[in-house]
Amino acid sequence: MDFLGFFQGQTGQAVLPVLIMVVIFYFMLYRPQKKQQKKRQVLLDNLKKGQKVLTIGGIHGEIVTLSEDTVVLQVAEKVEMTFARSAIAQVLGKDQK
Fold first, then answer.
1. Of 2, 25, 36, 63, which sits most exposed with the smallest number of CB within 10 A?
2. What is the pLDDT of residues 68-92, one digit of tens each?
């Protein structure tokens, strides 16, 4: 009986560090990542025609047209490029917060 009680005590002690690690990973990795994803989704949802933006690839342009999945940017006079909406990294200029 003493051996069984000792084993159960050791198991309880082994679970505590694992639980502590799970809590640390939650607050250091998962939670900040979720906040960043929400912030990015808000940025993508609030895109408007005429805003100056920067793509993930480093291309600067002004939004000409928007659809649910794509964005058409004017990158130079008479030069328009189509990108996936998710390719927008940030909004530039006075509309940026």
1. 2
2. 999 999 999 999 999 999 999 999 9
